[in-house]
């Protein structure tokens, strides 16, 4: 039985046989070893590249930020507090097939199931270097707004993707990609949880999985994304772009030219990268921390602390970064999380085998887009419309790549409004 506080996907209060309650509880010995590794990990001296005189991160992460983040992880950060936050929501694991032959892996997911018989199932899909942690603020807001399970208008499901967090990695027998992840997600939603139809919400690689689901799976009725890089339509008139779109394309150019070397590494040499990053929590902190600092909107987190140079930084964002890095480290999953990048880049002269444009989501399926100005590749509406039955579009003033984490109130409002549009049409 589920807790009497919340419902179940079937409305009976009973879990399907394949589903079991789950509690996050990392062994204390592993936490102690992590602390030892952190204390023994050196940080190199200042050099031009890690301490640019202009205070920028043009050549990578700044040394002084890493020094402070290391200190905070060692002296102030509490993984047990993160565990408590995760475990404050209903957690489950389920054995889910990864292919038509029935081979299975265990998938962990958060599941807040409404007692409302008309509740709309929504599955939230994270990306890299994200995790289920980025949905906790959003889920907290919705739980606070709807404390009565009979009034919650959604079933909220957020799985750790295969190879991430508390879910198993894919088998080692072949290359797995986004279409395989979509198969797993649909199997979880329909085959395991028994839901008749569902909406999917995602950013980053979660948005690509969402498009595969909307394109290929009948029970996925609608897609709400906050990231949708697609090419312009043929003969597109660039003189029609708004100033906001022009700024967005400039940011996309920055990302492709100056911010995407990590992705090419993940696409072309994931084995080497995974081995290197799995050897040191401090190395992992530097690798992932840089992405959060570059990809979040500075307006999303108050710059409330000062580094020795006088540079301001956000302690809240630093804490979120450390929590995310700790999850990857303590679950030992950084080396199994890179597989999506082989589909995002042309390698050895080959075209990418999977892209958003290859999975249009057209009528009768419905698509919603929430556009954030500090996304790494903000895309004009006209481009997205070519590959989508776009029934909902919202441009936000603040927010970046981790929109669910940065702007949970905005995401919650957007989700509710999108569902209303779906119910009206």
Automatic annotation (TrEMBL):
What InterPro entries does this protein map onto?
AB_hydrolase_fold, Epox_hydrolase-like, Epoxide_hydro_N, Epoxide_hydrolase
Domain Epoxide hydrolase N-terminal residue range list: 20-135
Q: Extract the coiled-coil ranges from the record.
A: none
UniProt keyword list = Hydrolase
**One Pfam family this chain carries?**
EHN
Q: Which family does it belong to?
A: Belongs to the peptidase S33 family.
Protein name as annotated? Epoxide hydrolase N-terminal domain-containing protein
Q: What is the organism field in this record?
A: Podospora pseudocomata
């Amino acid at each position: 039985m589920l807790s009497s506080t919340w419902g179940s996907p079937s409305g009976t209060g009973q879990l399907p046989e394949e589903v079991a309650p789950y509690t996050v509880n990392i062994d204390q010995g592993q936490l102690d070893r992590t602390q030892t590794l952190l204390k023994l990990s050196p940080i190199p001296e200042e050099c031009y590249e890690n301490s640019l005189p202009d205070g920028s991160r043009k050549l990578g992460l700044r040394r002084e930020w890493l020094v402070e983040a290391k200190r905070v992880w060692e002296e102030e950060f509490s993984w047990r507090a993160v565990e408590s936050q995760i475990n404050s929501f209903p957690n489950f694991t389920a054995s889910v097939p990864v292919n038509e032959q029935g081979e299975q892996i265990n998938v962990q997911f958060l599941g807040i199931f409404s007692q409302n018989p008309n509740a709309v199932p929504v599955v939230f899909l994270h990306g890299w270097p994200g995790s289920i942690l980025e949905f906790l603020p959003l889920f907290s807001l919705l739980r606070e707004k709807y404390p009565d399970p009979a009034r919650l208008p959604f079933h909220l499901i957020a799985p750790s993707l295969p190879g991430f967090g508390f879910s198993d990695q894919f088998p080692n027998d072949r290359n797995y990609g986004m279409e395989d992840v979509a198969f797993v997600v649909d199997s979880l939603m329909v085959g395991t949880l028994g839901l008749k139809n569902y909406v999917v919400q995602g950013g980053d690689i979660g948005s690509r999985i969402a498009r595969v689901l909307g394109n290929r799976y009948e029970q996925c009725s609608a897609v709400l994304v906050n990231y949708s890089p697609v090419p312009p339509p043929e003969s597109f008139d660039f003189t029609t772009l708004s100033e906001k779109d022009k700024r967005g394309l400039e940011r996309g150019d920055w990302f492709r030219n100056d911010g995407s070397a990590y992705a090419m590494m993940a696409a072309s040499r994931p084995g080497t990268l995974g081995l290197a990053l799995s050897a040191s929590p401090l190395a992992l902190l530097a690798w992932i921390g840089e992405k959060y600092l570059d990809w979040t909107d500075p307006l999303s987190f108050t710059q409330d602390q000062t580094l020795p140079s006088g540079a301001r930084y956000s302690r809240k964002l630093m804490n979120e970064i450390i929590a995310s890095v700790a999850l990857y480290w303590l679950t030992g999953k950084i080396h199994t999380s890179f597989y999506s990048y082989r589909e995002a880049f042309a390698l050895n002269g080959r075209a990418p085998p999977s892209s958003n444009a290859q999975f249009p989501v057209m009528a009768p399926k419905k698509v919603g887009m929430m556009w954030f100005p500090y996304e790494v590749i903000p895309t004009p509406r006209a481009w997205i419309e070519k590959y989508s039955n776009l029934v909902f579009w919202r441009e936000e003033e603040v927010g970046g790549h981790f929109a669910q984490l940065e702007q949970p109130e905005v995401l919650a409002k957007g989700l509710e409004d999108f569902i209303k549009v779906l119910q009206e049409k």
